[in-house]
Amino acid sequence: MQNYLTPNFSFAPMIPERAQGSRVWDSEGREYIDLAGGIAVNALGHSHPALIEALTEQAQKLWHVSNIYTTTPAQALAKKLTEATFADKVFFCNSGAEANEAALKLARKYAHDHFDDSKSEIIACINGFHGRTLFTVSVGGQPKYSRDFAPLPPAITHVPYNNTAALEAAVGPQTCAVIIEPVQGESGVLPAEQAFLEAARRACDAHHALLIFDEVQTGMGRTGKLFAYQHYGVVPDILTSAKALGSGFPIGAMLTTDKAAASFGPGTHGSTFGGNPLACAVAGRAFDLINRPNTLQHAEEQGSKLQQALTTLGRETGVFQEVRGMGMLIGCVLSAQYAGRAGELVQLALQQGLMILMAGADVVRLAPSLLLSDEDMQEGLARLNKALQNWQ
């Protein structure tokens, strides 16, 4: 097929045509087990009937009226999010990058409102990932994504992930915000240590900075709780969500407290499509399905079973030296002799009818549907095993 899109993506050698649950069929009719979940987006699998119903119902009522107005679906979704979390207010947008952009702008605006202009520094983590806008790619601590776009926004400092001493040393009177992923997703599915998040909270409190948790990938049931911060008992001032929030329909959200939200007065920030009725209606229905005890328990249990099976497979084949993660966000760290070759395994798996992901060159990532069945899990593992047997 002729490609008419810009060459910033390297597309797989197949074209998905239709999907149901955790199974996908390409344009040639070949079936795949999907353990990638659209990069942690399809939390309820593909073509969930309740989401189709919500989208269809809303499509017959109202699509778009601009942010001059609010709508019932937007207010209903914001109410659900605030009632289930620490937050008091929600800003809706269209993606994780936009949610993080809003969070970082709010942090700087809050500091500007309450302190002097010297309080503008953002502390982030090396190998973090927060999006592809110029601001978020600068805050993400991966030069490979930012170096070609210099000059970059200033007053951003990076510290090693899970290095409590370095974090405490970096945060000071000049700091307006600390941003952390509770699990570093793109850089290897690496969970935060309890002490690291606790230190971040203490440091922010001591220096009147805002703590931002980027839960774009970890939120909406992915780790077995609605949001990953709930595993740790460390509460942020701002939280960002996207990906699974709409379970396939584009939507992002920034959640925050009344205290911080006050700095986003009329005209300070906006989004033409943010909070549109279609997205909020689908996300509201997805929220109802995800934020159920049985859904969250299933995700936690299936994630545990999948991690155990992958650990066994890694030990038997010698391919994985470690399997880590939380819930249904799992990283398989390649053994030394396979280092740097995660992309090869992703391609071999696709040839066997299995969709998986990379999280850096040394880690294979799985982020399947929270509703993954035992049957689909076992079939996916069988196809992965076959791919490993063919890997030299």
TrEMBL record:
Keywords noted in UniProt: Amino-acid biosynthesis, Aminotransferase, Arginine biosynthesis, Cytoplasm, Pyridoxal phosphate, Transferase
A single MF term (Gene Ontology): N2-acetyl-L-ornithine:2-oxoglutarate 5-aminotransferase activity
Gene3D superfamilies: Aspartate Aminotransferase, domain 1, Type I PLP-dependent aspartate aminotransferase-like (Major domain)
EC number: 2.6.1.11
SUPFAM superfamilies (alphabetical): PLP-dependent transferases
Cited InterPro entries: Ac/SucOrn_transaminase_bac, AcOrn/SuccOrn_fam, Aminotrans_3, Aminotrans_3_PPA_site, Class-III_PLP-dep_AT, PyrdxlP-dep_Trfase, PyrdxlP-dep_Trfase_major, PyrdxlP-dep_Trfase_small
Recorded superkingdom: Bacteria
Signal peptide: none
Ligand binding (N(2)-acetyl-L-ornithine): R132, S271
Pathway assigned to this chain's UniProt record: Amino-acid biosynthesis; L-arginine biosynthesis; N(2)-acetyl-L-ornithine from L-glutamate: step 4/4
In-chain residues carrying the UniProt-annotated modification N6-(pyridoxal phosphate)lysine: K243
Enzyme class of the recorded protein, top EC level: transferase
Catalysed reactions, semicolon-separated: N(2)-acetyl-L-ornithine + 2-oxoglutarate = N-acetyl-L-glutamate 5-semialdehyde + L-glutamate
Cofactor: pyridoxal 5'-phosphate
Cofactor note: Binds 1 pyridoxal phosphate per subunit.
Keyword Amino-acid biosynthesis: yes
Further information: May also have succinyldiaminopimelate aminotransferase activity, thus carrying out the corresponding step in lysine biosynthesis.
Binding partners and assembly: Homodimer.
Name of the protein in its database record: Acetylornithine aminotransferase
Species this protein is from: Uruburuella testudinis
Recorded name of the encoding gene: argD
